[in-house]
Design goal:
heterodimer, A: 332 residues, mainly alpha, two-stranded antiparallel ribbon, 14 helices, 4 strands, 70% helix, globular, B: alpha+beta, Immunoglobulin-like, ABC transporter involved in vitamin B12 uptake, BtuC, five-stranded mixed β-sheet, four-stranded antiparallel β-sheet, 11 helices, 13 strands
Chain lengths: 332, 407
């Protein structure tokens, strides 16, 4: 029972932790892409990687101030979105899917390659770039704080605070945009591209704007992740994270402003609870070690996410808050 | 292949004393005799100097554990053979251990030895790799053609083939050739299960293609990490056909198993082409792929054809996985990494066409290998992905695809 409460407390921390912020921002971006515009971006993690490395490279390699690093990260994400969109947005939806997933994997391979090591630190990545950011915290970052039965370091608390403010601002922006004419056009593109085109709208330009906007949200996510972990390592930005973010988005409900936020909090809670719970069941001998060892638990999480994603899409594509009519997408 | 190393000798456990040992050979020159090998302490005090024997082997007994510097005399090496980097290595020998020492030799057929030979070598390697991609990609393209599904879980069919063959071969002790055949059966069954348990019910429910695409991604994620749980994160070789020496074929060299894999791939792909062209089911497949409604209205049982496509695709992908595992070892995520190149090949050739997948995959394979002429080896997959993006800009329907399909 104590184990269960412990697992619950750790999972409760994950509910608000910077990983939840990370996935929330990725999923808000994907919501703009997939939920509202109907674009299949499977390379969201590439935007996050550019965001994180934008800060890391600018600060620890070029010695620039932290806020310049943020701008570099955002600009890099914009450039990537333009490069991805240019060839694919005129084509049917699955071409963007193929190109984005390929680019995300390709970029990670480039960043971790031997020849990129002088810039990106190769497989070991870069660190020591978040000192300026942590120093901005209005409280003592060296102390530890107890909140609701969980313990946080001062720096962690600062990252999380900034992160959730960022999530709130991004959600507010999405909410405002989707009430505006721009949002209505974008949603109309998702429903029927040809109809929008016949009304004289430049579908290509709208799709591109949506891709860039969602990519910037993704880059913010990567920045929070980088300052949260204190390091930027290419292999942190595995492709599976994109699918976790999709899981969060669909769980919460696509095409809803708060869907991705609630979804990623819940997803992180479930994952952490499953993780801690399974580990304590293994160490207590409830699950025999031959069946499942503690090292397999990390992999089992991805298996569960994969199966969960499939079941959600088949049986409840609108997630918790979504509207079924809005998420019945089809390839055109 | 121009691998050239001091292959570690087999350590004999009976001797208690410390030792360093190795073999000097390259794939072109074979074992190299009469090369002076000097072993010294880090202070420069010479322990012993020996010459390599007829089989290229050498060994030096050491006074105790610790650090030693092993150097070969580059002047003794035959014409055209050079040491990679420094001609000496510093090794740490644990007590009671015969420490193998690797000193890389270059016989000029790789790196900087004559551009033409290297280009030909890479071209042949690329053809072999492209044939592997093609085998796996034919199924991917036919599944897309017949059902419209972009199957992101196709790489997992490649992996299941390789892993099944590994278990049957290494754990079960069955020779690799029957193991590969069994793996193809496994791949076919898994393909059929895919269709019967997931995709046919989903089509019946009227699930959209985009939802199906995301489902396939979920399936890929779940399967991939399930493999990792059961198989582990390491790469393992098969029990058979290891450590072959490359044979020279004029401007390029190949190991026997690579020749076999090229022959197998060509034969299988020709058989598939003949089946598509001549047999009734093959014609039905192409008909469904071309226009599903028309095929259905002319009396073709579309669901049966799709099931057959899945079985065929699964078996071919499994065979591709076995051959890839033979050359690059078996890994839990090998299929997923290959998937991106399969997509590149299929898109280049034209989504939905069997012959397009074949042609496109060959080009991608050759391009990926040849790209190492200009870019570092660990970035060669990136070259293939760049090619994919360029194709989409220049000719999105691919070489053999039709304009109408791309939306």
């Amino acid at each position: 029972m104590a184990d269960l409460i412990n697992a619950f407390a750790i999972a409760g921390k994950a509910f608000f932790g910077f990983q939840a912020v990370f996935f929330a921002l990725l999923a808000i971006g994907l919501n703009v892409h997939f939920g509202y515009t109907g674009l299949l971006n499977f390379g969201q993690i590439a935007f996050a990687m550019l965001g994180g490395f934008g800060i890391a490279i600018s600060v620890s390699l070029w010695g620039l101030p932290f806020w310049v690093g943020v701008i570099v990260g955002v600009l890099a994400a914009v450039v990537l979105a333009l490069l991805l969109g240019l060839p694919t947005l005129r084509l049917r939806a699955d071409y963007l899917a193929i190109v984005t997933i390929a680019t995300a994997e390709g970029l990670r391979l480039v960043f971790r390659s031997v020849s990129a090591t002088p810039v990106t630190g190769g497989t070991r990545g870069l660190s020591a770039f978040n000192r300026d950011f942590i120093a901005l915290a209005p409280w003592d970052t060296a102390r530890r704080y107890d909140l609701l039965g969980t313990t946080w370091s001062g720096g962690e608390l600062w990252v999380v605070t900034v992160g959730w403010i960022l999530v709130a601002l991004c959600s507010l922006l999405v909410w405002a945009l989707m009430r505006a004419p721009w949002g209505r056009v974008v949603k109309a593109i998702r429903e029927d591209e040809d109809a929008v085109r016949s009304l004289g709208k430049n579908v290509y330009a709208y799709k591109m704007q949506a891709l860039v906007l969602g990519g910037i949200f993704g880059a913010f996510g990567g920045m929070i992740y980088a300052v949260g972990t204190g390091s930027a390592i290419p292999d942190q930005y595995q492709n599976a994270n994109t699918f976790l973010a999709y899981g969060a988005l669909i769980l919460g409900g696509a095409a809803r402003v708060l869907g991705p936020v609630i979804g990623s909090m819940l997803l992180l809670f479930i994952l952490q609870f499953a993780d801690t719970g399974l580990r304590s069941l293994i160490s207590n001998g409830v699950i025999p070690a031959e069946l499942l060892s503690a090292t397999d638990v990390a992999q089992l999480r991805y298996v569960l996410v994969g199966i969960g994603l499939m079941l959600l899409l088949v049986f409840r594509p609108q997630g918790i808050f979504g509207d079924r009519r809005e998420v019945m997408l089809d390839a055109r | 292949m121009a691998f050239a190393t001091l292959v570690p000798g087999v350590a004999s456990a009976a001797e208690a004393g410390e030792q360093v040992r190795g073999t000097l050979q390259t794939s072109l020159s074979g074992p190299i005799e009469g090369v002076t090998v000097e072993v010294a302490t880090p202070d420069g005090e010479i322990v012993d100097t020996v010459e390599t024997g007829e089989d290229g082997r050498w060994e030096v007994d050491l006074p105790g554990a610790g650090q030693y510097v092993v150097s070969v005399d580059p002047d003794d090496l035959p014409e055209g053979v050079e040491v990679n980097g420094e001609p000496s290595r510093t090794v740490t020998v644990d007590s009671g251990r015969a420490q193998p020492v690797n000193i890389g030799l270059n016989d000029g057929s790789r790196n900087d030895g004559g551009g033409t030979i290297r280009a030909v070598q890479l071209f042949v390697d690329g053809l072999r790799f492209g044939l592997l991609i093609a085998m796996a990609a034919v199924g991917l393209s036919l599944i897309y053609g017949t059902t419209g599904l972009t199957n992101f879980a196709h790489g997992e069919l490649v992996t299941i083939g390789a892993i099944a063959a590994w278990y049957i071969n290494v754990q079960g002790g069955v020779p690799l050739i029957p193991a590969a055949l069994l793996a193809m059966v496994v791949g076919g069954v898994v393909g059929a299960l895919n269709e019967l348990a997931i995709w046919r019910p989903l089509r019946r429910r009227g699930t959209g293609l985009i939802a199906a695409l995301v489902v396939s991604i979920g399936l890929s994620l779940a399967l991939r990490y399930t493999y990792q749980i059961f198989y582990g994160g390491f790469s393992n070789p098969y029990a058979d056909y290891q450590g072959q020496r490359a044979k020279s074929y004029g401007p390029f060299t190949l190991q026997d198993r690579d020749v076999a894999s090229i022959v197998i791939a060509v034969v299988v792909l020709v058989l598939v082409a003949l089946m598509l062209q001549r047999t009734k089911i093959g014609k039905a497949m192409r008909a469904v792929s071309d226009n599903r409604d028309l095929a259905a209205s002319s009396g073709i049982d579309v669901n049966r054809v799709i099931l057959f496509v899945w079985v065929l695709g699964g078996a071919l992908a499994a065979l591709g996985g076995v051959l890839l595992g033979l050359s690059d070892q078996v890994q839990w995520d090998m299929g997923f990494r290959l998937l991106l190149l399969m997509f590149a090949g299929v898109t280049l050739g034209g989504l939905g066409t069997a012959y397009g997948a074949l042609l496109g995959s060959l080009i991608v394979g050759v391009f990926v290998q040849m790209s190492t002429l200009v870019i570092p080896n660990d970035m060669k997959y990136v070259g293939g992905l760049l090619l994919l993006i360029v194709i989409l800009v220049v000719r999105p329907q691919g070489i053999l695809g039709s304009r109408a399909r791309i939306g």
